[in-house]
Task: structure prediction
Amino acid sequence: MSASVLFDVPGPRGRRRQRIGSVVGALVVLALVGLAAWRLGANGQLDPSRWAILFDARTNVPQRLLEALLNTLEVAAVGMVAATVLGAFLAVGRLSDHAWVRIPVAAVIEFFRAVPLLVLILFCFLFLPRTGISISAFGALALGLTLYNMAVLAEIIRAGILSVDRGQSEAAYAVGMRKWQVMTFILVPQAVRRMLPVLIAQLVVLLKDSSLGFIVGYLELLRTARSLVETLNFQFGPIYTFQLYVAAAVVYILVNLLLSWLARVVERRTGRSTKAAATTEAKLPADVQMGGGGGTV
Amino acid sequence: MEFLSENWGLIQSAFLTTLSLAVVSGICALLLGTVLAAMRVSPIPALRGLATFYVEIFRNTPLTVVFFFLVFGLVYVDVQFPSRFIAAVAALALYTAAFVCEALRSGINAVPAGQAEAARALGLDFRQSLTTVVLPQAFRTVVPPLGNVWIALAKNTSIAAGFAVTDLTALLQRLANANADQLLLVFAAVVLGYLVITLPSAYGISVLERRLAIVR
Result:
């Protein structure tokens, strides 16, 4: 149902009311933004010299932020690749005909989906060193992200495999393929193709979740912003705090919007492709995108 | 086990903090999300644009960053939350509302167009047809996704631990530092605390789903 079913195309009076409503609404929003800007200005936060530090290469700030962005992307990339590979194995395992494979795999998936991501990361960070496995903040973060996302991706890929038209596997069996051949040559490629936009959407989630590295002390964007604030406060007093946090948030939003946009482009391309036509519609549920603990138990 | 009974008071209060964080911010997010969803289908373009902007921004910002801004950033516009708990509720509610809105919007889209057309044919205006015809049906179809959002919210409350709210995860960090030998037990207790919230919720949602599902 499209939204326009809910109301008539407005007539002249309705349009006038809407225009008045829009103007009043815009004024209220502008007033709020203006109020915030005025308070910021009154506190001297909008002073250009304070913002200039973000672009001044001599202070090392842009370099540090760039490095932090690369760190964030690095941990997200490691997590994504590992989680996708493991997730594909788990998805296939959960669809296995053998109960001794299916049940443990299902237990693993359900367990890692049920535990909050932060608890998983803390587990890797605090517990593994005690057992003699030395692990860095990067390792703990990457491992936590991998374990959590592999379970989420396993469910996504499983949904993708199940959404492939039954005729595809029947035809494959009819031409004499074995079970593993049907899975690797027929079902998984189509499922992955079908799920590509969802996988990219999950990358956005993973990138967002990498900000949890802040809590275990991995130098990702947020942590770097914080440590920069601390060193700069030491040198100049607390004048750059707000600017650095805003910069970190803006970088996150821009990178994620870029990825979301990429997901939409891929979705449109795969939607047009004839090879994906044999599958039924499958979508990422809204809750998975919440990250940090999305998904059902 | 002795260790657990020694720290029982701490565990109980941490569990209650997590639970109340989830419940309070869940209710706020549901209200705000419903308003946002109504805005996204409203006839006024400015409201639609505003709601879309809100959802896009919050869906693409890490929850940790939202927390950061409410806890450390709002001071610079001279706004101060009375306590860290309320700041955490605000962050969770603002973030989750965007996802509630998306879930509800998909529910509104799932209501057959004939329903809204019939409502309009009867002479109901936008507000009436939305609140008496479309939204009640939309809510019934989005019970599973909304339930999942609720469970995700319950798990996301763990991030509040990084911002000085003494919830289960904060307890984990505190006990882990104090009792290195009992670490596995601490983890088990904390994970169990979360499961006590999420597993009954998942069951309740599936019951609710069966009771409320609309057979078309």
